[in-house]
Design goal:
Two copies of one chain form a homodimer. Chain A has eight helices and ten strands. The first copy, chain A, is of the alpha/beta class and about 210 residues long. In chain A, strand 3, helix 4 and strand 4 form a beta-alpha-beta unit.
Chain lengths: ~210, ~210
Amino acid sequence: MALGWARAGEEVLIGSRSVEHAEQAAKEINAAMGRGAASGLTNREAALSGQIVVLTVPYDAQEERLWDIRDEVRGKIVVSVVVPIDTGNARRLREAPGGSAAEEAQTLLGPESRVVAAFQSISHDHLAKMGALDSDVLVCGDDAEARQEVIRLAALLGFRGLDAGPLRNARVVEGLTVLLLEINRRFKSRGTGIRVTGISYGDQATG
Amino acid sequence: MALGWARAGEEVLIGSRSVEHAEQAAKEINAAMGRGAASGLTNREAALSGQIVVLTVPYDAQEERLWDIRDEVRGKIVVSVVVPIDTGNARRLREAPGGSAAEEAQTLLGPESRVVAAFQSISHDHLAKMGALDSDVLVCGDDAEARQEVIRLAALLGFRGLDAGPLRNARVVEGLTVLLLEINRRFKSRGTGIRVTGISYGDQATG
């Protein structure tokens, strides 16, 4: 995703607990781009300087990572790509006590951050096919403006982002990711996605 | 759905608490078909004579209706089209204590019936467009043979049925129906559906 946004002209800050890791990832993006589009930082530095913060960590690590950047993301959009997958069985959803990983993130960060759930079921395979994508990104969050901003980020990666309503719906979208892993296995696919049918894109009501 | 299956050559038995209601529905199907393809019966009679029983009742009525036909559906496939929608807000999923309406049906009927969850998000609009459908039917159940039988029933209505694994996944599929209602509203659509992308139909593994 970082590479995709860099390609679309966005400045990308990669955060990691290990600055070396982050710098290495940024270096690979810059090499692919032939210019300095990405930088590697600590999580806190990246969260502080970033305008929109995208959280792509395992569910088990979410709480700790979010506490670490809680002050830095105040007032910002935080995009949760987290899915509470059962570590013992990746096709089985774990019960998230707060309903979904994204709702738990919102509770943890408090109302000053605007959590938006998106991109959970986008596979490496989808990202590699940028520009020829037939999968949608369902975007849930309690702030309408934040949802629209994330729909814009999805479009930069070549995806149709769809406003899927309040953050509470993240529990369905996260569950859908696990269902798609099940279907991947049954159909021997490397990356299934979903497409919502029966809508005209231009008809989307905002708010 | 009854009309669709009748058109596909299946014999359809319609059950209702009111035989008059059931007979009226059957009469309309027979008039549309120009032959006697459907009969109206009580729920118990329909459940007893039917080979596959399709349950399309409101969530609140499910328990009572299932108790009524518990003995009659022993050994049979019971297809649950039920969604635990919040009656106060149709775009909000209710918490089903058993995880999903379909899992609750399986618990109530016991292991001798094979509950399969399917068709929840198929709208009137989809059924009216039979033959030109781009929406999939996700099929969940703990019995692989029963899932395949329901995939066949979906094909008779013009839908691609997809094996979506164990009955536990019904909680995601039921939730997805509520999410689609939300998207219907936002996009002013009469019937959104979903299409799973990234698979070749012929690749489906059974079992």
